[in-house]
Amino acid sequence: SLSKILIKGGTVVNAHHEEVADVYVEDDIIVAVKPHINVGDDVTVIDAAGKFVMPGGIDPHVHLAMDFMGTQSIDDFFSGQAAALAGGTTMHIDFVLPVDGSLMAGFESYEKKSRNSCMDYGFHMAVTKWDETVSKEMEIMVQEKGINSFKFFLAYKGSFMISDELLLQAFKKCKSLGALAMVHAENGDAVYEGQKRMIELGITGPEGHALSRPPVLEGEATARAIRLAEFVNTPLYVVHVMSIDAMEEVAKARKSGLRVIGETVVSALVLDDSWLWHPDFSIAAKYVMSPPIRASGHNKALQAALSMGVLQLVGTDHCTFNSTQKAFGIDDFRKIPNGVNGIEERMHIVWDTMVESGQISVTDYVRVTSTECARIFNIYPRKGAILAGSDADIIVFNPNSSVEISAKSHHSKSDTNVYEGRRVKGKVEVTIAGGRIVWQNDELKVVPGSGKYIEMPPFGYLFEGMDKAEASYLSSLRAPVKRSKSTT
Ligand code: DUC
Ligand code: ZN
Ligand code: ZN
Ligand code: ZN
C-alpha cells in the first residue's frame, strides 16, 4: 500500500464519543481505531499523546475562483485548499455558478477549475434563473453529477436573484429530486432601494454597505424562504445566518418542527461591523461581505445559538479578493467585491471562540465543524468521522499551543486577512488528507490533482416522514365547497 500511518495515544474525538485510542491508516482509509495497535516498522508513527485526534474539518460554504462582481475571487482550487489544509480543513463544498444560466456549462467550468485540487471537495449548484431546461438540468445534476443541493439567491437583484414565483417552482423540483434547497436570504429589492438611498445621502464608503442592507432584510427573507419551503413542504438550508433576526426565524421554525437547517459563518461569530466604519478604506473594504457583518451583539447571540443547537454548523463563505480588487469600490461601496477569508482560520477560531471559552464541548466542536456537514450532505460516515472504514481525513490538535493569524503567514493568495493579528488558543499540528500527511511542523506538502470530487447522493433520512407530513398537510385542507352553477 502507498502509506501506512499510526496516530498513537491521542484522544480520538467523534461527534458522539471520545476515547484515548490509536488510529491506523492504510492508503486513504482508516483501518482501525482502538487502544494499543501494534505495527511493523514500515509505518509512520505520529505521537498524539495529550492531543486531540479529530475528523478533518468540512467547510460547507466556499467560493473558490468564483466569477463575481466583475472579477474573480483570487483563491483558486489549489491555493484555497492548501490554505484549508494548513488550517485543519480537509474537505469543502463549493458553489457552482451557472454559465449564462446553464447548469451544465457551469458544472463543466467548475470541473476545469477544480482539476488541480489538493483536497477532497464537493459541489452545491446555484440556480439563478428558471425554465424547462434548468429543471431538466437539475435532474441531471442529481442523478448523474453527484450534486444534492441547490442554492437560490433572494438578493443580488439584476444578476443572481430569483423571484418568489420561480423559487416555489425550484423548491418543488428539489423536493421531487430529494435534493436540499438552500437560500441566501436577504430581500434583494429592498437592498437595491437601500443602496440607492445611501448613494443619494452621499454615503459612498464601506459603512454604506452595512447601512443599506440591515438585519431586518435578512430576517424578512429568512422568514419568507422558510414559509415558502413550508408551503411546498420541503426541507430548507439557510446559508450564512449573520444576524439575530435571521437566527430567530430559524429557531422558531425548528421549534415548530420544520426541517430547517441554519448555517452560520466564522465572520458572523466573531467580527462586528465597526470595521466598516474604519477611516482607512483599505481596511474597511476587506470586511465587506453579504449579508454584512452586524453590529456588536449579533456575534455573541449567534455563538449562543450555535452552542444550543439552534444553528447546526459553521462554514466560512471564504471568497477572497486582494486589496487591488477591493479598491474597485473606492468611490462606491456597491462596487467592492463581496467576500472575506476564513477557510484557513475556521477550525482555529471556532475552537478558540466556542471550546476554549467553555461554550461547547470537544465532541460538539467536531459536530459543528465536520460531522453535521457530512450528515446533512449525505456523505457520513465516509466523511466527518474517525471510524474504521472512513476516509483518512484527520487532524491532530494541540489544545495547549496557540496560533497568531496574519496575512504574513497565511496560505491564501490574498494580501489581507480579516483576522489579522488575532491570537487563538489551540493549534492544528498535523493534517492528514486522503491518507497523506499534508501539514506537519508548519510545513505544507500538498500534491496538485490529489483531491477527489466527492459525489453526494440524494437524500434518505432528511426526507423521511415526508409522505406522512404531506398526507397530514393535505388532510388539513378543508374540502372545497360544491356550488351550483346558478347565482340566484
Ligand atoms: N456573499 C459574499 O460575501 N461573497 C460571495 C457571495 C455572497 O453571497
Ligand atoms: Zn469507546
Ligand atoms: Zn450568499
Ligand atoms: Zn456564499
Question: Keywords for this structure?
Answer:
nine-stranded mixed beta sheet, eight-stranded parallel beta sheet, binds zinc ion, globular, 488 residues, dihydropyrimidinase activity, alpha/beta, metal ion binding, binds dihydropyrimidine-2,4(1H,3H)-dione
Describe the SSE topology.
Blueprint: E1 4-14, E2 17-26, E3 29-34, E4 44-47, E5 52-55, E6 57-62, E7 67-68, E8 71-72, H1 79-86, E9 89-96, H2 103-113, E10 120-126, H3 132-144, E11 149-153, H4 164-177, E12 180-184, H5 188-200, H6 207-212, H7 215-232, E13 236-241, H8 244-255, E14 260-265, H9 266-270, H10 281-285, H11 298-308, E15 313-315, H12 323-326, H13 346-355, H14 362-376, E16 394-404, E17 423-433, E18 436-440, E19 443-444, H15 466-476
Structure description:
With 488 residues, the protein is an alpha/beta fold. The protein is 32% helix and 23% strand. The protein is built from 15 helices and 19 strands. The strands form three sheets. Strands 1, 2, 3, 4, 5, 16, 17, 18 and 19 form a nine-stranded mixed beta sheet that branches. It has an eight-stranded parallel beta sheet with strand order 6-9-10-11-12-13-14-15. The model has no long low-confidence stretch (mean pLDDT 95). The structure holds dihydropyrimidine-2,4(1H,3H)-dione and zinc ion (3 copies). Residues 17, 19 line the site of one zinc ion. One zinc ion binds next to strand 2. This is dihydropyrimidinase. Homotetramer. One of its GO terms (biological process) is pyrimidine nucleobase catabolic process.
